Amino acid sequence: MGHTVTLAGQGWRFDADAPETVLQAAERAGIRLPSSCRNGTCRTCICLSTSGAVRYKIDWPGLSPDEKREGYILPCVAIAETDLTILAPAAGKLPVPPRTDA
C-alpha cells in the first residue's frame, strides 16, 4: 500500500510504495532530494519529518538517538510506513528529458 509524502516547504506531494525508499519515490515523481551514498552513512539526504513514520532498510542508519527522537530521517534508506510530511529545503524538480517522438 502506498503512502503520500508531502514536502512541506514546497507543497509538493508524491506517492511512496514499499519497498522503495522515500528517495527513490521522490526521484520517480521528478523530485530531487540531495543524496550521495544511498546507503544511510553519509547523511547528505538528512531531513526532518514533521509527521508520519518510517522504517529503515538497514539496522543502523547514520542518525543519533537524539536525531531519531527529534524526527530526522535519511530518505535514502527510509521506507514510508504512513503518510509523511518532511522538510527538505534543498529539494528541487528534476529536469524533464526532451521528447524524442515527432
UniProtKB/TrEMBL annotation:
Belongs to the 2Fe2S plant-type ferredoxin family. InterPro entries: 2Fe-2S_ferredoxin-like_sf, 2Fe-2S_ferredoxin-type, Beta-grasp_dom_sf. Gene3D superfamilies: 3.10.20.30. CDD domains: fer2. This is 2Fe-2S iron-sulfur cluster binding domain-containing protein. The keyword Transmembrane does not apply. One of its GO terms (molecular function) is metal ion binding. The keyword Iron-sulfur applies. PROSITE patterns: 2FE2S_FER_2. It holds the Pfam family Fer2. It comes from the Bacteria. Residues 3-92 form the 2Fe-2S ferredoxin-type domain. It comes from Duganella alba. Keywords: 2Fe-2S, Electron transport, Iron, Iron-sulfur, Metal-binding, Transport. Its cofactor is [2Fe-2S] cluster.
